[in-house]
Design goal:
mainly alpha
């Protein structure tokens, strides 16, 4: 994952690392004192407000999240959806420096 690659690039190698299948699974593991988790601030806002989790900022550690557009296999994509996807791609290219793009995006 991008987070793991970023940790290794920063010369950080945790002794034990687990990739869990969901945000809730990560939060539950942290709440059970099984370690730390890397999550977006939005995903832990309620727990932080309730005092269940403490949030630490990671300066200089930028994460990128891959977002997918999904649709029904046999349905046509509406022109408005196509325009939105193209707008999103252009917007993302402007915001992500070339050095931070995944290899699959550099074509």
């Amino acid at each position: 994952s991008y987070a793991v690659a970023s940790l290794l690039k920063a010369k950080l190698s945790p002794k034990i690392m687990t990739v869990l299948p969901s945000i809730d699974a990560i939060k539950k593991a942290v709440e059970a004192n099984m370690g730390i988790g890397l999550l977006s601030d939005l995903s832990v806002a309620k727990e932080q407000e309730a005092g269940l989790l403490k949030v630490l900022g990671l300066q200089g550690f930028r994460l990128r999240r891959e977002i997918l557009a999904v649709y029904l296999k046999d349905e046509a994509i509406l022109p408005s959806v196509t325009r939105f996807i193209e707008f999103s791609k252009k917007s993302a290219k402007k915001r992500v420096p070339e050095s931070e793009k995944l290899a699959s995006d550099r074509s």
